[in-house]
Amino acid sequence: YRGGQAPYGTWTVRKAFLPDGWAKGQHEDSDVAFAVVENKSGKSVEDAVGGNPFVAGMATGATAVTITGYPSAREVPVSCTNRPTRHSPTQQRIDCPGLSGGTSGSPWVNGDKAVVGILGGHEKGGSTDDISYSVVFGAEAAELYRDATN
Fold it and tell me: How many independent structural domains does the chain possess?
């Protein structure tokens, strides 16, 4: 997506995978989901635009992460790199200015280019534009990912 255009096109979601805690009550510790999308013209979305591996079990704050998201009020992405800290046993937080409404679901990508978090979780991702949260990817997220990729 760039400047109001989707130069690679759009893909149709075939199936979404949600944990029970989110599907039944939007529990902040279950704020993660995976989508399986249809191929388009014989190409997967990952073939067309690239992708990052998913990693569960990474210690919070082990490395800095970069978050890139598209705020609702802007046509260009914002990015921030910082080291997350532990908010609770199931939530991590990061100080990153400018991650306003619309950036929910943005990946937290570590130096190995792996997704180790997503903007969401506690306070639906954060009650201010400067502090954001992610559920810690543990066994529940890993199982959900396995279900989505099999």
Answer: 1
Domain span holding position 97: 13-149
Look at residue 79 and tell me if it is in a domain.
yes
**d(Cα 98, Cα 78) in Å, to the nearest integer?**
7
pLDDT of 23-76, one tens digit each? 998 889 999 999 999 999 999 999 999 999 999 998 888 899 999 998 988 888
DSSP character string of 16-72? EE--HHHHHH--GGG---EEEE--BTTB-HHHHH----B--SPPTTSS-EEEEE--T
Q: What is the pTM of this model?
A: 0.90
Sort residue 105 into left (φ over 0), alpha (ψ -120 to 50) or beta.
left
